[in-house]
Each structure stands twice: as structure tokens, then as C-alpha cells.
């Protein structure tokens, strides 16, 4: 926020409201924290793009009188006020202090992000504004119900990453040439044409005149420097290469500084450069093959970006490389059962992000992303991918090449199930023969494939297509959900 933007705010909101609070000198930390909670919740309820706590404004007249408060210098114990506030807010929302000169007087404005997923509490208490008065949310159940209803409709992508910028400032922060390149569109001849196109894609929001806001969607995809957008810096994609099979020693680390779309191909190229190689001897020549297929890496990276839960602060998508595996994780749990990743119709918690990344040929919404991963893994004769969940994150693991005989029982069952799903969605059926080909089991060892199928049937993951067929030789199998 700059002085001009604050003046515009004061003209539009000359008195305190449910999303604007004026103070003179009260900088009590607990009071500020309660106001952050109340104003963030109220701004979300009202559909505002931000809320404001402003010091140096007379709340009776709206006149600029100035203030002596210095929140950036304030400490609670040895901890800076901003850090202390952030630790006591749940879920965390972005907030920024701005010190301004307005009409020759010093004014401090605190911009507060509207909450995105659930009411914000401070130190365990949720607050709301009733008119211009701060109240505990639990004392107003009707308002609480309205807030929850409003939060269920507000996508993260439409939130604001930066406000009150000029057209020049917008283009300085966004990698707009990359957008036109990926979208395969001609670059407009002038700044106005560029800004109009960015606005059509919801990457920016015009505010009148030469004033614009950058949306979370715009910053996430095309930021020149994600760290410039407070609250999004921790959403940068991280790649870590470890020595060996544990996280004890890090060899390399890359943290994307650019937006997802701007950096995507460079990121995938970097991962491919770090992936171990397999050496194969054939036709008297040694040849090196990349351990993991590029298409699988590409799909998993895109999925981690698209399907993450942006309401979880302090964490983002990550890819970790070990000598024996690759793990790709993102904050948030999947919206569909991982057992149905291959066949289920697409569903994303971030529909605007998913749609634009599809249009830019980075992601896809047809629900075939994981199919591509499994298809590529089978072609490389690798062990089956494993999907794991904890209480907050989803992790997909690709394993290095190993002999099928060295796979454990769960690996074999998972390979059998994924193979069966992949064939079913291609209008084919799994047989003993197809599974042997998938796992490189010799034709002389039919019984081994039969045992794996039997174990997968007992795990209730596959079933005979025709239960009445008594011939074991020609049995065809389908997934349990078919």
C-alpha cells in the first residue's frame, strides 16, 4: 500500500466499518491480534479484498492526525511483533505493516488478508466485527454460519497477492512475455493491450484508472520473484537431492524463485538433470537411461502444484531425490480416493489454477495425469508408484529399478492392481500373460504371476471379470470398482 492508495481508501471509507478500524496510538499486541482475527473474518464475510487497521486517523472525523506507533520495532520478549502475531493466528493469514506519509503526517496501515478456508482465531479465540465493534464470533452464531457459507464459495486464486499497483509496476512484477509465449498469443503492441489480456485471464484485477491488483493466480503462475509476494514465498517449488537413501546429507537444493508457469520447463529440466542413470549393456555397447521417465516427473510436478491446499501456510510442493526413490509431495489430502486416481473423473480444489495450467499445456484436467505416470512406469519396467497420506500431506513415491523378485508383497499387489486399472480404462483386461509381461516374469513361471493375482484378489483390489468362469487358464480380471 502507498499513500495514494490509502487516500483512496479513506475517501471511500471515511468512517470505521466492519473491515476498517482506525486507531491513534493503541498498539497493545493482544489487541492488534484480536483485530487481525476480527477484520480478516469480516473481510471474508463481506467479500472484500483486504481489511485495514490504520493508526493515525481520528475515528470520529476520519481526519489524518498522525501517530507515533512503530509496530515494526515492537518486540514481545525477544520476538518481533509480526512473528509473534503470526504464531498466534490459526489458520495463518497474510498481513503487512506499511508506514506512510499522508498530508505531512506519519500514518501506519496494517493490511490484512481475508481468511480463505476457516475463521481465523487469535490465541484460541475467533473474532468478528459487528458494525464497528469487535466481538467474539461464538457469541454470534448467525454471523458464524454466514461466514462459513461465504468461505465455501471463495477460491484462493481470486485472492490478492499485491494491491494498488500501477500498470508499470504490474508488468515489472509479472513475467508477462512468458504468458503470451505459453498461450501462443501475439504480444500486444502496447501496455494497455497487455494489461487487458492479463485481466481477462484473472491474473490481475483492474481497480480504475492506472491502478491494478495482482491476484494469487497471477503471482503463483507468473511472478518474476515469488518472494516479493508476502504469503506466497513459501509456496515456491523445492527440489532436494540427497546422498544415499536418507535425508541426512543434502547434495543439491533448488527453490523456484519464479511463478509455476514461468519456471515449469526449467524445473523439470533441472529434475531430469539430477535423476540417477541406469547403465544397460546391449549389442556390445553400454547405454545410459534416465531412471525415471520424464513424462512421469512432469505430471507429478504439475499435479503437486495444482492440487495443493493453499490454506496451509508455511509449506508448499516439494520433490525429493534419493538414490533409490523419488518423492513428490504437496500440502493437503486428495479429494478422491488414491485407489481411484487412474479411473476417476478430474476434481481439483483449485479449479482456476488447474484450468489455466491446462490451457497453457502444463497440466491437464481430463483425469489422465496419473494414467500417464503409471503407463510410463510400466514402460520403464519400474516398481509401481506408491501414494501415501499423512494428516496434512499427499506423497507420491517412484522407486528405482529393481528385479521383480526383489519386490515385496505389497509392491507386487500394487503393481497388479495398477496394471489391471490401466488396462480396464483402455478397454482391455488383465490376464496372467499381461501381468507376466508387466513384471518381466518368465513364461516358465506362470505360477508366480498366478500367486500375485490371487494375493491381489484376496486384498479385494481386483476380481474375475466373469465369476462363473471355471477355467483358470483364460481368466480375465477387472478392478474391484468395475
Word description of this protein:
- The protein has 482 residues and is α+β, with helices and mostly antiparallel strands.
- Among the domains are: 3-154, Methyltransferase, Cobalt-precorrin-4 Transmethylase, Domain 2 (2-Layer Sandwich); 160-234, no CATH class.
- The chain has 15 helices and 23 strands.
- It has helices at residues 3-12, 29-46, 81-88, 141-151, 167-173, 176-182, 191-200, 216-222, 260-274, 294-306, 351-359, 369-379, 409-425, 432-439, 446-458; strands at 20-23, 51-55, 75-76, 79-80, 89-90, 95-102, 105-112, 121-122, 125-130, 133-136, 160-165, 204-208, 211-215, 238-242, 250-255, 277-282, 285-290, 318-321, 325-331, 386-389, 393-399, 462-464, 477-479.
- The strands form 7 sheets. It has a 6-stranded mixed β-sheet with strand order 15-14-18-19-21-20, covered by helices on one side. A 4-stranded mixed β-sheet has the order 1-2-7-6, sandwiched between helices. A 4-stranded antiparallel β-sheet has the order 5-8-9-10.
- A hairpin with a 2-residue loop joins strand 16 and strand 17.
- Helix 2 (29-46) crosses helix 4 and helix 9 runs antiparallel to helix 10.
- The longest helix has 18 residues, at 29-46.
- The chain is elongated and about 90 Å long.
Task: Please outline the helices and strands.
Elements: H1 3-12, E1 20-23, H2 29-46, E2 51-55, E3 75-76, E4 79-80, H3 81-88, E5 89-90, E6 95-102, E7 105-112, E8 121-122, E9 125-130, E10 133-136, H4 141-151, E11 160-165, H5 167-173, H6 176-182, H7 191-200, E12 204-208, E13 211-215, H8 216-222, E14 238-242, E15 250-255, H9 260-274, E16 277-282, E17 285-290, H10 294-306, E18 318-321, E19 325-331, H11 351-359, H12 369-379, E20 386-389, E21 393-399, H13 409-425, H14 432-439, H15 446-458, E22 462-464, E23 477-479
Parallel strand pairs: 1-2, 14-18
Antiparallel strand pairs: 2-7, 3-4, 5-8, 6-7, 8-9, 9-10, 11-13, 12-13, 14-15, 16-17, 18-19, 19-21, 20-21, 22-23
Helix pairs in contact: 2-4, 9-10, 10-12, 13-15, 14-15
Amino acid at each position: 500500500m502507498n499513500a495514494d492508495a490509502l487516500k483512496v481508501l479513506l475517501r471511500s471509507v471515511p468512517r470505521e466499518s466492519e473491515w476498517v478500524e482506525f486507531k491513534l496510538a493503541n498498539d497493545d499486541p493482544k489487541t492488534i491480534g484480536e483485530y487481525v482475527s476480527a477484520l480478516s473474518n469480516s473481510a471474508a464475510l463481506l467479500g472484500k479484498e483486504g481489511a485495514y487497521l490504520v493508526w493515525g486517523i481520528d475515528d470520529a472525523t476520519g481526519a489524518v492526525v498522525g501517530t507515533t506507533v512503530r509496530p515494526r520495532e515492537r518486540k514481545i520478549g525477544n520476538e518481533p511483533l509480526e512473528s509473534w502475531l503470526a504464531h498466534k493466528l490459526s489458520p495463518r493469514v497474510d498481513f503487512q505493516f506499511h508506514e506512510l506519509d499522508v498530508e505531512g503526517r506519519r500514518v501506519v496501515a496494517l493490511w490484512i488478508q481475508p481468511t480463505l478456508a476457516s475463521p481465523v482465531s487469535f490465541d484460541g479465540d475467533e473474532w468478528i466485527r459487528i458494525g464497528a465493534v469487535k466481538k467474539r464470533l461464538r457469541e454470534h452464531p448467525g454471523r458464524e454460519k454466514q461466514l462459513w457459507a461465504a468461505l465455501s464459495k471463495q477460491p484462493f486464486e481470486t485472492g490478492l497477492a499485491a494491491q494498488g499497483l500501477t500498470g508499470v509496476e504490474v508488468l515489472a512484477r509479472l513475467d508477462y512475455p512468458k504468458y503470451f509465449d505459453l498461450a501462443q498469443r501475439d504480444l500486444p503492441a502496447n501496455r494497455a493491450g497487455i494489461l487487458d489480456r492479463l485481466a481477462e485471464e484473472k491474473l490481475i484485477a483492474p481497480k480504475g484508472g492506472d491502478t491494478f491488483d495482482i491476484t494469487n493466480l497471477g503471482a503463483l503462475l507468473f511472478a518474476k520473484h515469488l518472494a516479493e509476494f508476502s504469503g506466497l514465498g513459501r509456496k515456491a517449488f523445492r527440489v532436494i537431492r540427497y546422498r544415499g537413501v536418507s535425508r541426512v546429507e543434502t547434495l543439491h537444493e533448488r527453490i523456484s524463485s519464479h511463478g509455476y508457469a514461468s519456471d515449469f520447463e526449467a524445473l523439470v529440466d533441472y529434475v531430469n538433470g539430477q535423476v540417477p542413470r541406469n547403465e544397460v549393456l546391449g549389442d556390445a555397447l553400454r547405454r545410459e537411461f534416465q531412471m525415471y521417465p520424464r513424462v512421469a516427473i512432469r505430471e507429478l510436478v504439475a499435479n503437486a502444484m495444482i492440487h495443493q491446499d493453499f490454506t496451509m501456510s508455511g509449506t508448499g510442493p516439494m520433490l525429493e531425490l534419493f538414490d533409490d526413490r523419488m518423492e513428490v509431495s504437496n500440502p493437503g489430502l486428495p479429494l478422491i480416493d488414491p485407489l481411484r486416481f487412474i479411473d476417476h473423473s478430474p476434481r481439483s480444489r483449485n479449479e482456476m489454477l488447474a484450468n489455466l495450467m491446462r490451457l497453457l499445456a502444463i497440466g491437464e484436467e481430463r483425469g489422465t495425469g496419473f494414467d500417464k505416470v503409471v503407463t510410463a512406469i510400466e514402460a520403464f519396467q519400474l516398481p509401481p508408484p506408491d501414494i501415501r497420506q499423512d494428516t496434512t500431506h499427499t506423497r507420491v513415491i517412484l522407486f528405482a529399478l529393481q528385479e521383480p523378485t526383489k519386490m515385496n508383497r505389497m509392491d507386487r499387489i500394487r503393481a497388479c492392481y495398477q496394471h489391471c486399472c490401466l488396462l480396464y480404462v483402455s478397454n482391455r483386461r488383465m490376464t496372467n500373460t499381461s501381468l507376466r509381461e508387466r513384471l518381466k516374469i518368465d513364461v516358465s513361471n506362470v505360477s508366480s504371476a498366478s500367486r500375485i493375482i490371487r494375493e491381489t484378489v484376496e486384498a479385494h483390489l481386483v476380481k474375475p471379470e466373469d465369476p462363473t468362469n471355471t477355467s483358470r487358464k483364460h481368466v480375465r480380471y477387472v478392478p474391484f470398482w468395475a
